[in-house]
Write a structure and sequence with these properties.
325 residues; alpha/beta; Rossmann fold; 2 domains; 5-stranded parallel beta sheet; 9 helices; 24% strand; elongated; binds flavin-adenine dinucleotide
Length: 325
């Protein structure tokens, strides 16, 4: 093979969007090396998912199984990927810059005793390969030369917009029964808690997020009302979770969730870098803040300089009035 091997982990939260973005990066790399883009998957639902992967540039699917592998297992997946790597000799192995993608690729790199280039924004094939990657939670973009026989790369979440690259066509599927040694079953999934059905902070098209400026846990009632009217979800900054006003599951940022909604409404949030890295992939940002010099105001597409407790109820009132017309 003279192409790119991509780990497609379709069982992760928010998988469709992040996979499509990853495949867009993969197709771009495959074009640069004039090679194929081959998807490695452990997901038995691959036949249902193949059409979407094909549209986003995949040429072939390699489905990996082993009787002792019923669920996600980072060491086992890594052993399987290494076996396929020695079989097909790809030019590079890539994965999503998610927790699981990083865990598996770190294991692949450890087995191969090779470097792992994590969290890339873009990769250029050359002598040597060049990559831009995110460091320190997004506050630093690092330019690196990748001097290794087999680049092992992850792409940062939401680091490109997913693009269709060809029309959907039936894909060739190659089955691989992989061999696993006792070391491979170190980590196994023993229990799975289903997320409540419906949209989440990561998938919602609208996120109304509040910061310290909201003032209290009860102050979030107006944000909940607005989010409800916009069919959105409520997020928050770390100042809010530190104060115990909201659960950490609502936190956006470096130590919270990285999201990419169509509309992010940042209410009483200053826009510290650790918050910004979680919100910067939003398509449109509206900041509501009393401080015109706040970082979030400067970076937003639109800003209202006012007390959020005046603005948000007024916006909600107007939406209700228009809906009632
Ligand atoms: C290692 C590390 C990781 C971190 N991870 C995260 C993370 O994941 N997510 C995160 O959010 N932070 C994170 N932080 C914290 C981050 O540095 C900031 O401290 C935090 O984001 C600030 O939250 P804030 O904007 O709500 O509060 P502040 O910075 O205090 O800003 C409050 C804003 O509200 C405005 N305001 C006040 N009253 C009103 C009003 N009535 N109406 C309108 N505006 C008003 C103010 O003008 C101000 O701009 C991290 C920090 C570290 C060191």
């Amino acid at each position: 093979m003279s192409g790119i091997l991509v780990l497609v982990d379709s069982c992760e939260a928010d998988a469709t969007e992040t996979i499509n973005e990853l495949l867009t990066h993969g197709r771009n790399l495959a074009n640069q090396v004039n090679g194929t883009l081959e998807a490695v998957t452990f997901d038995p639902r691959y036949t249902d998912l193949a059409a979407g992967w094909s549209e986003h540039g995949v040429d072939l699917i390699r489905y990996l199984t082993n009787s002792s592998l019923q669920d996600y297992g980072p060491q086992a997946w890594a052993q399987g990927i290494v076996q396929i790597t020695s079989l097909v000799e790809p030019v590079a192995v890539i994965a999503c810059g998610s927790d699981r993608g990083h865990e598996v690729m770190a294991n692949v790199a450890a087995i191969l005793d090779a470097p792992f280039v994590a969290n890339c924004l873009s990769v250029m094939v050359g002598e040597p390969w060049q990559a831009s990657r995110v460091q320190w939670g997004g506050s630093l973009i690092e330019e690196v030369s990748v001097k290794t026989a087999l680049p092992i790369v992850s792409f940062a979440l939401h680091s490109c917009e997913a693009k269709l690259s060809k029309s959907s066509e039936p894909l060739e599927i190659v089955f691989h029964e992989i061999e696993l040694d006792s070391e491979a079953i170190k980590t196994v999934v023993t229990e799975r808690t289903e997320k409540p059905a419906g949209q989440s902070l990561e998938t919602s098209a609208v996120v109304v997020s509040g910061g310290r400026g909201v003032g209290s846990a009860d102050g979030f009632d107006v944000l909940e009302t607005l989010a409800g009217l916009l069919n959105g979800k409520v997020g928050c900054s770390r100042a809010v979770t530190n104060n115990g006003w909201r659960s950490h599951t609502d936190q956006v940022g470096q130590t919270g969730k990285r999201i990419a909604p169509d509309l992010y409404i940042a209410c009483g949030i200053s826009g510290a870098i650790q918050h910004w890295v979680g919100a910067m992939a939003s398509k449109t940002i509206l900041a509501i803040n009393t401080d015109p010099e706040a970082n979030m105001v400067k970076k937003a597409d639109y800003a209202v300089i006012a007390n959020l407790h005046d603005v948000i109820p007024a916006v909600s009132h107007e939406i209700v009035r228009r809906n009632d017309r």
